[in-house]
Amino acid sequence: MINILLSTDDNYVMPTGVLMTSICENTKSEVTFYIMTNADFKDESRSSLKRNIAKYNQNIVFIPVQPSATKDFPFGRPDQPTHVSVATYYRLLITNLLPKNVDKIIYLDGDMIVMDDIADYFNEDVDGYAVGAVIDQDMDENVKDERLEYPKQDGYFNAGSLLINLKYWREHHAYEEFIKVMHEKSNIIIFHDQDVLNYVFHDKKKWLSPRYNIQTEFLVAKKVARYGKELIKAIKNPLAIHFCMRGSKPWMIRCDNPFTEVWRKYKSISVWANSPLQNNVSGNLKNRIRIFLVKYHLWKETYYLTIPKIEEL
Fold first, then answer.
1. CA-to-CA distance for 25 and 115, rounded, in angstroms?
2. What does pTM read for this prediction?
């Protein structure tokens, strides 16, 4: 049994469902999806996610989270990102929310797709570690001034894709540690639960291959040059693609990520096959210019243009 943890609200149902489709299409094993939602999650949304995976005979469990569970968490300050909801903190609650017999689980953000059997990821050995994780695309920026008050050589991971050792979390009272950090260090928490997870687990994580979390900027030429052969190998054999560029998502009309058409392939076999793409054409002028330059290969510092074309992967 492979356990997968997702989080969504009514506005993110379609992307979450497409992610689930990609997992079901590529995974041979039995899967249980645990889906954390806000307390007023609509019955219609719940029903659509169930219908979407019905043909795969996989399992789905919904876990409603009450507003009181996150009411005191650091959120909404001017120095914090505004494009996420307080639901991003749900991950920190899982030792209290998930069944006690679940000792290991994969967490994935909703703006991802899976392109290979997710058992490869689930079967990674994280005994003795709190999480298995991939470096964050902005790791250098997040550790350079030791903002989170731990040695910068410990690095900074992206929390959008995590192999979580729940047994370790319970045995080491991780939830209590999270609460303590958010109470005592709230002033240094900018990237919400991702900062909290890095603070608590900075020396308790296992670095995993980038193939488990190919973030958008990993496809940028300068990042490929920075991380070298391991990243090139991962790009050519990806398991999970993470569309983490704000304002450029594959369900939007304009998305310049090279894996956009792969995401749309999975949408076309989901229950949202006929749902229109969102209109982002009239968005930020700078972003529109960037997309135009990338499309016509005029901006050499954007995507790593020497990787195989998507149809060759």
1. 9
2. 0.90
Query: Which residues have C-beta within 8 Å of that of residue 132, sequence separation ≥ 6?
Result: 124, 126, 162, 163, 165, 205, 206, 207, 208, 212
Quote the tokens at residue 285: 């002028």
Distance between CA atoms of residues 24 and 55, nearest Å:
10
In 3D space, the residue among 182, 185, 88, 174 whose CA is nearest the CA of residue 129 turns out to be 174
265 and 187 assigned to the same domain: no
At CA 295, angle to CA 16 and CA 269, rounded to 5?
A: 30
Residue 9's CB: how many other CB atoms inside 10 A? 17
From 168, 191, 209, give the residue that closes a domain.
209
Q: Which residue has the tokens 């949304």?
A: 45
Question: Which residue range(s) make up the domain with 244?
Answer: 214-312
134 and 276 share one domain: no
Q: Domain check: are 193 and 236 in the same one? A: no
Cross-strand partners of 107: 5, 162
The CA radius of gyration of the chain, in Å to the nearest whole number, is: 19
pLDDT digits (tens, 9 = 90+) for 228-258: 889 989 998 999 999 998 888 999 998 888 8
Domain count, the chain: 2
Compute the residue count for the chain. Answer: 313
